[in-house]
Amino acid sequence: MFDVDNKTAEVVNHLFRCLVAIKPAFKQAWPTEEEFMNTKKEWIIAFKQENISSLNLIKVGLDKIRISESCFIPSPGEFIALCEPDPEQLGLPSLSQAYKEACETSHPCSGKKCSHEVIRYARNATGSHFLSSESASVTKPVFEDNYKIAIKLFLDGKIMDQLESPKKGVHEYQEYVGKLKSDIMIGFKPKGTQILSFDEWKLVG
């Protein structure tokens, strides 16, 4: 037995509707209703383990499935791997470019800022001192993992641009909301991006 997360279940249900429409061999994968439902349960477990509970996260995988020549249903692991987009697909710098920028902005005297909040998030998660004091062979793999996590958070509609702000007043909160709404309107952030309440925003540190 496992606890069914409603958001994850909704995402899997939507995904399965799409898979049935896209893949003509779905009946070979699920010849009976019982097998179909059991498979759904396993996919929900897999998605929960990978923290996939947003339609934004599966859109990338579905786009790849639609142009695939295979008529067969992928396994949960195969589909989850397809959901990992290249940064360039989202208008983000490549891994190499992002790593270079993170290293450059890690030096206190550089005076430079990250061009995108996803890079800043990954840089902070990796550690500015770590990036500026260790070799690339040591720091780049760590940054790469954190960059992938940051991209996933961005796709999932999590907010990261307020994490570094020490200001917690109403005026700053209004600026945050205004900027976020503007970013959503121009497509800089996914339309489903969550706008934190004032109380939630104050707790982010």
Question: Overview of this structure, please?
Answer:
The chain has 205 residues and is mainly alpha-helical. The protein has three domains: 6-84, no CATH class; 89-156, no CATH class; 161-205, no CATH class. It has eleven helices and no strands. The protein has helices at 6-22, 26-29, 33-49, 55-66, 76-82, 95-106, 117-126, 128-133, 136-155, 170-185, 198-203. α1 packs across α3, α4 packs across α5 and α7 packs across α9 (136-155). It is globular, with a radius of gyration of 20 Å. It starts with 5 loop residues before the first helix and ends with a helix. The model is unreliable at 161-168 (pLDDT under 50).
Defining traits:
single chain; mainly alpha; 3 domains; globular
Reconstruct the topology from this structure.
Blueprint: H1 6-22, H2 26-29, H3 33-49, H4 55-66, H5 76-82, H6 95-106, H7 117-126, H8 128-133, H9 136-155, H10 170-185, H11 198-203
Helix pairs in contact: 1-3, 1-4, 4-5, 6-7, 7-9
The pLDDT mean sits at 79
Q: How would the global form be characterised?
A: globular
Number of domains: 3
The helix content, as a percent range, equals 55-70%
What structural class do helix, strand and pairing data support? mainly alpha
Give me the number of helical elements: 11
Beta-strand percentage range: under 5%
Span of the ends, CA to CA: 36 Å
Radius of gyration: 20 Å
